[in-house]
């Protein structure tokens, strides 16, 4: 009996491990984009990011589906949903975040742009009656959000709300809403279609939305970008997009939108550690205490699911 329980518990933990890896990749990507962002226009950067990997994704998707004899057809309503999700990814999340940060700062972006996403997700899920509310969630979510505020408050541009940043902060809140809608929408498609097909379609429509910004640039603009800028683009495209999206959406299909969104609170931790390693930034007491708070909050939120997995094992 013990021999069958151990493998089951190990495989049930894989989606959690996968999301940890995802946010390590995303944390490193923050430092990468800080370096590349000094040279790239954010809309052009994200447009190239999606458009450059689209052919590669479709080649892999075709090979993947043909080898496994899987259909690449989708129901019309699901096709429209993935089109909307692609637009949300390109304009409602990535481009909107880049634009909002012009009127706010990175600290506010960590808290408002992503930190509120689990809270918005649970509100939508409760409204749709897709999940129940427990005391651990009621304690864990505010604790995680407060800990994220503590982490970013130690930076040179700490979290703050004022009239000067109201425009950017409002857009960051809207980005959290788009992120929650994206998670819930993708979770309804992941189990129905091959994952490479969903990612290829999402990236394709995200790239199409940003194509006008790319076409607006001339050869001299691209020639002026340094090697570091191109390396940043390659890392974001290959690792943060292809690998990150694949692992994230695979885990999303196993854990659901709310449980997956909570792992987003790891981003301030992994971002700070990546900054220490790559950019030689300083980690203070705020980051340490906030990181411990995030880990405790995630334990509380995930504990209910782990109890269910133990019973099923």
TrEMBL record:
UniProt family annotation: Belongs to the EamA transporter family.
InterPro entries tied to this protein: AA-Vitamin_Transporters, EamA_dom, EmrE-like
Subcellular localization, as worded in the UniProt entry: Cell membrane
Name of the protein in question: DMT family transporter
Organism: Paenibacillus psychroresistens
Keyword terms of this UniProt record: Cell membrane, Membrane, Transmembrane, Transmembrane helix
Membrane topology reported for the UniProt record: Multi-pass membrane protein
Coiled-coil residues: none
A Pfam family the protein falls into: EamA
TM ranges: 12-31, 43-63, 79-99, 111-128, 135-152, 172-190, 197-215, 227-250, 262-279, 285-301
Top-level lineage group: Bacteria
Domain EamA: from-to ranges: 17-152, 167-301
GO CC term (a single one): plasma membrane
């Amino acid at each position: 009996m013990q021999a069958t329980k151990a493998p089951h518990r190990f495989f049930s933990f894989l989606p959690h491990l996968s999301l940890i890896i995802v946010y390590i990749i995303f944390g490193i990507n923050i430092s990468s984009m800080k370096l590349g962002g000094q040279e790239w226009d954010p809309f052009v950067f994200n447009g190239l990011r999606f458009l450059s990997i689209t052919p590669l994704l479709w080649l892999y998707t075709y090979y993947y589906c043909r080898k496994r004899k899987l259909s690449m057809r989708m129901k019309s309503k699901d096709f429209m949903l993935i089109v909307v999700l692609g637009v949300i990814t390109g304009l409602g999340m990535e481009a909107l975040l880049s634009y909002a940060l012009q009127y706010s700062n990175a600290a506010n972006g960590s808290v408002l742009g992503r930190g509120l996403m689990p809270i918005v997700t649970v509100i939508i899920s409760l409204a749709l009656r897709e999940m129940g509310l427990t005391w651990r969630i009621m304690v864990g979510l505010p604790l995680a959000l407060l800990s994220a505020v503590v982490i970013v408050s130690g930076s040179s541009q700490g979290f703050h709300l004022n009239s000067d940043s109201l425009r950017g902060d409002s857009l960051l809140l809207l980005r959290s809403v788009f992120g929650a809608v994206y998670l819930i929408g993708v979770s309804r498609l992941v189990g129905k279609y091959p994952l490479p097909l969903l990612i290829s379609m999402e990236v394709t429509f995200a790239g199409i939305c940003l194509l006008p910004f790319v076409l607006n640039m001339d050869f001299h603009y691209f020639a002026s970008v340094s090697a570091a800028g191109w390396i940043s683009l390659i890392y974001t495209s290959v690792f943060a997009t292809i690998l990150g999206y694949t692992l994230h959406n695979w885990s999303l299909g196993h854990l659901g939108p709310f449980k997956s969104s909570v792992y987003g609170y790891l981003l301030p931790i992994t971002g700070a550690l990546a900054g220490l390693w790559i950019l030689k930034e300083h980690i203070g007491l705020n980051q340490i205490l906030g990181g411990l708070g995030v880990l405790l909050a995630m334990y509380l939120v995930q504990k209910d699911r782990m109890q269910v997995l133990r019973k099923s094992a």
